Amino acid sequence: MAELLPLFPLNLVLFPSVSLPLHIFEERYKEMIGEVIVGKSEFGVLYADADTVANVGCTAKVVKEIQRYDDGRMDILTVGLRRFEVTRLQRDRTYLQGEVHFFKDEPIDELQDLKYQCLQLFQDLYESTPGHLPFADLEAISTEEVSFFIAYYSDLPLKKKQRLLELTNAEQRLVAEEEALKESLEAQCDQRQILQGNGHFPRT
Question: What is the pLDDT of residue 204?
Answer without folding.
Answer: 47
